[in-house]
Amino acid sequence: MFNKFQEIYTMSMHRGGGGGGGTTTPPPTTGGGRTFSFIAAPTSLSTSMNGSITMADGASISTWYFSNGGGFNGDRTVPSPVIEANQGSNVAVTLNVSMMSSPHTIHFHGLDVNQQNDGVPATSFEVNGGSSYTYRFTAPHAGTYMYHCHVDTNQHFEMGMFGTVIIRPSDGSTNRIWNNGPTFDKEYIWQLTTFDSSWHSGGGGGMGGMGGGGGGTGPQFARYRPDYFMINGRDGTNARTDSTTAITAGAGQRVLVRVQGTSNMPGIVNMGGLPFEVVASDGRPLAQSYTTTELLCCAGERYDIILTMPSSGQYTGGITYRDIRNSGNLGSVSTTITVA
Amino acid sequence: MKRRDFLKTGLAGSAAFAVSGLTMFTPKIASAATVNITLRAEGTSKTLIDGTSVFVWQFRDTSGNSGPGALTSGLLVREGDTVNVTVQNRVDRSIRFVINGVTMSTTSSVSAGSNRTYSFTAPAAGSYMYTDNRNGELGRAMGLAGPMVVMPANGANRLYDNGPAFDRQYTMFMSELDDRLNAAVQGGGSYNMANYEPNYYFANGLSYPDTTADSDTLIAMNVGEDVAVRFINGGAITYPMHFHGYHVNVATRNRSVETRVIEKDTVQVERNECVDVILPVEQAGAYPLHTHYVPGVSANGTYANGGLIIMNAA
């Protein structure tokens, strides 16, 4: 279908993959204040197009996801698992695409990998069913990043094939965001997620990538009308109590929340009126950190925020999803913020 | 020199310049020039990437020069220039020519079938958008908008006086349409913008892969250069623009210097907003640049089309 950049790819692919003098030391598995499970690079991910997730209203929504023995936190299919590596290390992630599956890729969003490892079919290649490819890159600046499938992205991103990449400081410490950067006591990921359930109907995987009532691309994906609003794949009452979304920490503790725009729609993050400090975005420290009570996070963006817990009380925070067409509110999801 | 040629070398660069890696922006306007331009607001048929034809509105430069890509007009001026824009309104309703951040000689509308000249002194260097604001967002949704780039008075390759320097620059005018709105307007009917749900998306009026065949819209650059990318949101939705392969430095938002959130790989461009960034080219290769509102990378749901831009670094 495309030619020009395939040629460019052919020329550049022999320049070698990522890497170059780094180490492969994985981040420590103990210590820190993680509230989610993770997998340390080097690692491998398989693909599943037969997932589902149960919404607060009881509906079962079909999902596709990357798996390493499970999806996010090992207990849900959306988002996909958290991958961690240390700044400067050589990262290798092997994608194993299931037999009889439609093709997939991994795009390491924000990690500025080279063209060969960028996971974009138009400029590199896709990994076919029954095949594998090992993506390689050198972990850049410590911070919050994303990975997702870039094949028929309209469908594959919506179906849930995305997850978080955390790059730890060079020494692997789990109490600082970057080398000599801000400290934190406890750590959460808030992945902004919405479903347009009509894009998931027809479900099921298999050859041809059925879903959304047809193939992976076409008029059924022309207009996006989300009807479920989540944090970390949890909506409604489920989000209020989920251990990965509901924030619990002691008075005065510094809670890091890695906010990530993985819905097509922007979301406005709030901590129940509590002020929080925005310290980094897209894997880079801000030129000037600032304190706010609301933060807009668009699709593809990441923000690292620090909430210093007040002396006591319980608050209700969450996400209000905003319509990119007219800034109106599409829906919201809330969770609890409790001083333990 | 025709304005079109000026735009080719100034706003985008020819293929020859792209491979040479030379600093290419050579100002061609004498200081404090007077720029006279006639823009005809009119309806026309636009053939989309999937072959369908849609009725759109456009500002067409009647001298025959165009803007970047498939845009039928574009203003490239220098600070202090006297600019006289004569608007010939040939659409079916009154329109009002405005540029956010610019004081015009008149704020009057121009009625259907009439002409009116809007004059102004080119303001501080930066990226701007001209549009109609008589019809709410419908004017932009139908295509009545275009880019205006104001270069510093001294002709320097900088985003603003003593601002960030660049080796080459591209203007990316992002827009979209909802073909149901276009059909309603063509039929003389009304349309409630609350129902606006676009299904076709463009960069400089083009959809991928046509974006890669146009020298204004294919970003051709060399490792080691600093490339200015001017995002001008000419549509009626937000564009979160994601760079593969690179982080960029956000320089200005609507001509205000960004001081907090600078290094980004995904840059929010709100409605009515112009965001100028500097891309330090740190690795070779071909990389996409696209809105992460993923439906915006499609044409009526078919992926990958839409306003998908390719950057190609040698």
Give short descriptive properties of this protein.
heterodimer, A: 340 residues, mainly beta, Immunoglobulin-like, 2 domains, 3 helices, 39% strand, globular, disordered N terminus, B: 314 residues, 7-stranded mixed sheet, 4 helices
In brief, what are we looking at here?
With 340 residues, chain A is mainly beta.
Characterise this structure.
The complex is a heterodimer of chains A (340) and B (314). Helices cover 6% and strands 39% of the residues of chain A. Chain A is globular, with a radius of gyration of 19 Å. The N and C termini of chain A lie far apart (57 Å). In chain A, the strands form 4 sheets. In chain A, strands 11-10-13-18-15-16 form a 6-stranded mixed beta sheet, with no helix packed on it. In chain A, strands 1-4-9-8-6 form a 5-stranded mixed beta sheet, with no helix packed on it. Chain A has 2 domains: 4-174, Sandwich (Immunoglobulin-like); 189-339, Sandwich (Immunoglobulin-like). Residues 1-21 and 203-214 of chain A have low confidence and may be disordered. The longest helix of chain A is centred in the first third of the chain and has 9 residues, at 4-12. By secondary structure, chain A is mainly beta. Chain B contains 4 helices and 22 strands. The interface between A and B is large, with 56 and 47 residues.
